[in-house]
Amino acid sequence: IAAQLGIFMRWIWHQPGAKYGPVGVQKKPASQKKKTKGKVKASSETDKVEDVIYVAMEAEAKIVALNSTQSVVVALINLLPISTYHVFVDNLFSSPDLFRSLRQHGHGATGTARSNCGIYNGLVEAKKADKTGKSGFQFNEIKIIPTADNQVNQVAWKDNALVLFLSTVFAGDERTKL
């Protein structure tokens, strides 16, 4: 049905496992093999799982390290026609590093966040305390804390539960300022 409507869908083939990863997303160079008492030790399975995908913005720009899941977001956006996009993602992908990378690519991003995504620790503690009803937040209260580089806002909003999310879109007119 999608093809009949003229919708063209793109995807990146991904085979689970640290050895494979997403097609078209380049992994960082393998680290040098570790030496133990004169013997060369091959990388362990743990080392392979912790491989990081690097996304280069411009030749002189700082490289932001992303994991393979987050790198797929950037790779898919790069397949779209050149424009400025506001990307909405769920908490599987959200992290301050991904949002910083998207911002450096000229895109806005907003998405819910998990407690372990790298969000400000004070908000994580409030989320834990909220499970016992002691977060200190009133219903519909919002607390916003920018990252140290002022590129990503980290937000806590009290609904029935405390909701954590991240955004690089602050006023809504960033598209004209990028």
UniProtKB/TrEMBL annotation:
Compositionally biased tracts (Basic residues): 30-40
InterPro entries to which the protein is assigned, alphabetical: PGBD
Stored Pfam families: DDE_Tnp_1_7
PiggyBac transposable element-derived protein domain sequence ranges: 66-169
Domain of life: Eukaryota
Region: Disordered, residue numbers: 23-42
Stated name of the protein: PiggyBac transposable element-derived protein domain-containing protein
Organism of derivation: Fusarium oxysporum (Fusarium vascular wilt)
Highest classification ranks of the organism: Eukaryota, Fungi, Dikarya, Ascomycota, Pezizomycotina
